[in-house]
Design brief:
The complex is a heterodimer of chains A (156) and B (300). Chain A is an all-alpha fold and 156 residues long. The longest helix of chain B is centred in the middle third of the chain and has 21 residues. Chain B contains 16 helices and 1 strand. About 13% of the residues of chain B have low confidence. Classes of the chains: A mainly alpha (156), B mainly alpha (300). At the A-B interface, helix 1, helix 2, helix 3, strand 1 and helix 4 of A face helix 1, strand 1, helix 2, helix 4 and helix 5 of B.
Amino acid sequence: MQSYESVYRKYRNAVMRFAIQCVGSRDIAEELTAEAFLELHRHWETIDTERLPSWLFTVVKNRAADHWRRAELERRYFASESTRPKQAHAPTVGHGLFDNEALKPVHRICLTLRYVHELSLGEIAQRLGLSEVQVKGHLQYARELLRKQLSGEADR
Amino acid sequence: MKNPHFDAEEKEFQREIASALDKVRASVGACPHPDQLMAAAAGVQFQDAAAVREHSAACPVCQTLMRDLSSYEYPAVSDEEDRRIRATWGAATGVPRPTPGWWTWLWRPMPLAAAAFAIILVVTGALVLRQPGQRPDESAKSVQPSRIPAAAARVAFVLEKAAIKVPAAAVLVYRGDAESGKTFLNELASALEPYRMDNYAEAARRLDLLAGKYPKYAEPHYYLGVSRLFLGENEPALAALNSALPLADDSLRDDVSWYLAIALDRAGRSEDARREVEGLCGHAGEYQQRACASVGELRR
């Protein structure tokens, strides 16, 4: 029989990662992770441990659905006051803009979030668990690389 | 849009990419917010989830972003986050975790005296209250509540992560018989990357696509089934493993059969699960020992 502590240590990172995927924000993901393990704590006497970690993922998924329901209500409320942010939809960019073998996924993520979805440096940093300085660095590197690519194409 | 502040260099960059941006703009509809995109991919139900999934299936920009974000190695839970998560249990349950080690109490005289007194009290009480002729295991039962249900007491029939095996197609590639198998292997390796990192939602998404693309290979169906099991999606897991079984060669058949038994059990088909496990128990193989032990557990 596994102890609660060992289960927590074993699955906390996987649950946190899944929670980030479900809600985006690391802060909210942390709350969801805490709630999932709190639920596990509450049901520890009766829990069928062979159902872990899927049981934890299901708790996170259900809590994430609640989160999105609340967010939708808030969005509607603000929309009714004509202050609905245009954030809901970003301009669509076709395939190929940020395609470059030298770019790592983190560069493409930063570029897309910044210049397609127009998120602030702080929002990108918070989402990726990086500092704003790091995000700025990734963007700078990626811009330079793409600049070279664009100027190379122009020279041809 | 948040209309974030763009500095002069960024504005210049935007001007530079403007024409390229215009060139590559495609009309697949407006992209949803990245958070919604990822939530829909993870299977979270929300109002626009179906529309988001429909969009992302057609939008290469969203697909790239989803792939990149899914493979992104988020920092592990930090010490600070860990403290806050643990504090949640403490606040809600009144049980502070982690408890300090017992050795920290040894040098504290008052708790030591209290503990010694409590032990004496318990031992004396047990001697006084113990019925003559009562068996020791019965007294243990009365002290320790039966907190583990039958299923939780299982030690053999449990879901553990399936090891990644060299696919049958790899053998053909090594022999030089199937050049096309190389492409499959590369794509399988990429799809298994999130599985390796315990990111089952993304693994399921990728393996689902791969299973559609290579319906005659067992591996995508098999690992898809295992990923779905970890996500608690029992019926889809069952479907994937049922697809994998007739395709699996000798090196993979027992693995598929084992996870199929788990999926059947979780889908409430315990009798079918037991039959599957009995089959594994009946012949020599990697799962024989566990399967034979599981037959008894499934009868409970």
